[in-house]
Fold this sequence. Notes:
The protein has 149 residues and is of the alpha+beta class. Helices cover 49% and strands 24% of the residues.
Amino acid sequence: MEKEMLVWLGLMILFIVMEIATVGLTAIWLAGGALAALIVSVAGPEIEWQILAFIIVSFLLLVFTRPFAKKYINSHHEKTNYEELIGEVVKVTETVDNLEQTGTAFARGLEWTARSTDNAEKLPAGTLAQVVSVSGVKLILKRYEEVEK
């Protein structure tokens, strides 16, 4: 019995450390389940009951408290710089040619490496384009006139 208690205690500590490290409300529910299983193991039932307590409590905590926690605890998500660029219209400063692996665009006071959404399409310098996504440090662009249609 002592061995099982140590396993549940170790799992609970592991899940708490994971939660502290990620701060994303990912493992706290499992820590609650491990605590329930630890309590059941202290009471004496077999390992099957401990595992069942772990699964049920983890599931119930996840289903009933996660929506509340996400809404009120982790609700102040700030967009990062790259997320704010998506949808913006930028000016191409060097011809964007995916096949030649060339192209830059000026966005928010910085020059970014740029690529087109279509490998066959070149965006000449001076062209306006809209940021569709960001891949690493590259802006993925689509000709602005196409977006407006």
